[in-house]
User: Fold these one by one.
Assistant:
Number 1:
Amino acid sequence: MKKWFIISVTIISVLVIDLITKHFLFAIDYFNLIPNVISIASNGGNTGAAFGIFSDNTILLIVVSIIMIVVLFIFNYFAKERSAFYCIAFGFIVGGACGNLIDRVFLGYVRDFIYLDFWPSFPVFNFADSFLTIGAVLMAIYIIFFMGKNRDKGKIEN
């Protein structure tokens, strides 16, 4: 029960943060948050995925996103992992994927607005992208170093 509680709270928190920031920050024409480091600005929407791949393939990206979310839940079911670390990583990935999926379904594009001024060629992104990336890194660390090892140590109740 605690496993699903942690996952649910994480997914909901990520979605709330993502959707609220998209609502308020995507409308900003330009705001220099930290000079020469990071700025906020509307980019008109991203119809593709990371680095602009699959631009104007919204239906394909919606289908792939749904399939990946289902695969993640199937993996989660069979993995039987219960550590808080795993649950948070899983929640970050699913929450981020759902945040961008909501944009694609209802708007036809993803609202990106965070610019790294010190790295001009880096793609514009949003909080869902950030949570997805952090969650994927945490999940990789978990799978490589902890999955299946000391299964009873640090375990939370299901």
Number 2:
Amino acid sequence: MPHFRAFLVLLLPLLLTGQGRGRVRVMPNLEYNGQFVFARIRYGGFSGYGGSTWSHDYPRADQHLSRILHDLTTISAALNGSNVFELTDPEMFRYPFIYVSEPGYWVMSDADAASLRAYLLKGGFIVFDDFEEEHLLNVEAQMRRSLPELHMIEIEIDHPIFDSFFRMKSIDFPHPMQPYLRAQYFGIFEDNDPRKRMLAMINHNSDLAEYWEWSATGMFPVDITSDAYKLGVNYVVFGMTH
């Protein structure tokens, strides 16, 4: 999109800054009013680094992507916060887009699995991000508990999700901390048919939210950060319109 890079450079100093990675303080959820709200799933468990896995990059990544959506698309995105839900929270069903961080450590209860199945079959869309290598096996195992009849299908740049708002020229996207990894993309589709509705988008060997979170600091190159935002915008637009 013309001038996107220049726009992002001008916008970055205005984005949220200053929240550290210490103990997570969960902000109150926003009341439903029809706006798009970035909804993140909270679950138990800790990574090998000792941090709570569900909250990696929270809340700045969530709020930064919402700002980009609000300013670049016709989506009315909430700018005053984001929401955090347990999978069994019925309020989750008001929000068509949910996000899971570090799903290599994610384990569902039976109630979680049943609720996620109902959510996805009713039209919800889930994105998995920030996990690497053999952690893909856990994502696959957990999703089979919710959708045993469906399986993950690897997708390439010709899938419409990569052209839903921004036309991606490449999806060979570097991991911010482990650039030697090759990014892979998987979808879960109705009837296991990539031409039908996508229920889940799975970013393997990738961490888009790391770029979103630190976009105001200059930690990562602007070009790569812009592409991370483009992918995030595409995911939301695709999930909201298909």
Number 3:
Amino acid sequence: MNKKIFTERRSVNFFDTSRELDKETFNSIMDLASLTPSSFNLQPWRVIAVHSEKEKERLLPLAWNQPKIKEAPYTLIIIGDKSGFKENAAIWNKLEEGLGKETADKLKGMAEGLYGTSDERMTRFALTNGSLLAMSIMYAAKAFGVDSHTMSGIDYEAIKKEYKLNDSEEVVLLVSLGYHDNSKELYPRGYRKTGSEFIEVI
């Protein structure tokens, strides 16, 4: 088992502004992260990759002017879709090809029963699956030697409005990707609970 992506992944506060993340590596990271598990394999997410200087300036004030927005080659806006389980979601057509219509129809009913009974359940569906994607992107990035940092200190509603998200879409968080500025030291790794401290076996 390759443990390095877990033991070496850190939240990088300082990105090397002189080092670009090439498009091929970026695409490889995203392709690998596409293997992320999701509810009923519905993949109810999309990503806006902020890369140009113009777009970084646009996002910066919506992320409380955190320097990472300007320093990192890419900052990803992770978006979860609250309606991604609905019967008319386009992904069902793709899934039906492999599952068959009868099985797909049965799963549609199950998904509606699990997530469609309240707005709270729909929101949890979007945020839970979007969070799974975000974490997979960070580990995929580390597999390619690329560093990352998440941001939840952001103006969610302002980002939703600025980027014209659909009513059913929720901003999950931001993920910056790039390379650590080695002239600046990372903070020492903080205390981590061991498994025995947060697991109750019953």
